[in-house]
Amino acid sequence: MTKLQELSSDYAGDEFGTVDHFMDQDKDLPTRMVSIYDIEFNPLNDQGDTQEELEEFAEVLHEEEQIRSPLNVYRIKDNPSFKFRLLGGDRRLHALLINAEKYEEAQRMVPVIIEKRPDNPIEEEQKILELNEHRTLTPEKQKRLVGRYLRIYRELEKEGKKPRGQVRKWIAAKMNIGEKKAEKYIHEIEGYKRKKIDDLVEEVNAAGETQIEEDVMPSAETEHRKNIIENMKEVLGRKVKINGTFLMIQYSEKKNDPNDDFYSVLNALGFDEEGMMK
């Protein structure tokens, strides 16, 4: 039995359609030729290309006669119209379908690498971003891509799986762009307030304290809290401010003095000298 026959026998079950054919026997992941009509576009993949841009790219592919690198897909069973869902190659699949409508001789069978199905949407979108080549992008598309990475970062934060390092560094490394450029887009998307919170989180975490998490507040709520702080200042007769997710009240320390100002603050807040509510 030849090597190809041995490999083919491993995938002879119904799970693998007869349209699949091996292209590269040496790859760890199975690589096959499949019909472009068997591949479903991924709803998580938003490249932001216009129809005009896709048609221009389709013409380039048509002139080259075929694509030179495989698409990345995973198998699906929840859609009877398709066998695979796309992970990498969104623009190329669009272009292939455009050409198939226009040219009789256009490529309709395409090489694919069959990937493991992602466990969840966050993992799936990360895989999509890793696989899709980051060609030269307009500022608008670059900002859109930063936004996608930013959404993944925040979701991982909520799940307690925050990537190491500051968000701007993480995104800059993923996109191969400068940290300042990544930070600029983050500011535009989330606002400067979020950046200040992130800096505080880094400082607190570096000191070994509990991690802080906060979503960006609506401007109306921000103004409301400012008014509360002003009222507290007036009632307590001392400085009060919000620092990240800390409410800070200033007091004057008087060592060995039973009338230490610290206890005056406690009393004003309704606590006794043991820190218990009165």
Low-confidence stretches: 1-27, 209-215
Main beta-sheet strand count, sense and barrel state: 5 strands, mixed
Tell me the count of domains.
Answer: 3
Name of the CATH superfamily of the largest domain? Conserved hypothetical protein from pyrococcus furiosus pfu- 392566-001, ParB domain
What is the molecular shape? elongated
Describe this structure in words.
The strands form two sheets. A five-stranded mixed β-sheet has the order 1-5-3-4-2. Strands 6-7 form a two-stranded antiparallel ribbon. Helix 4 runs antiparallel to helix 5 (139-158) and helix 7 (179-190) crosses helix 8 (192-206). By secondary structure, it is an alpha/beta fold. It has three domains: 1-118, Conserved hypothetical protein from pyrococcus furiosus pfu- 392566-001, ParB domain; 134-213; 219-268, no CATH class. Helices cover 46% and strands 11% of the residues. The chain starts with a helix and ends in a 10-residue tail after the last helix.
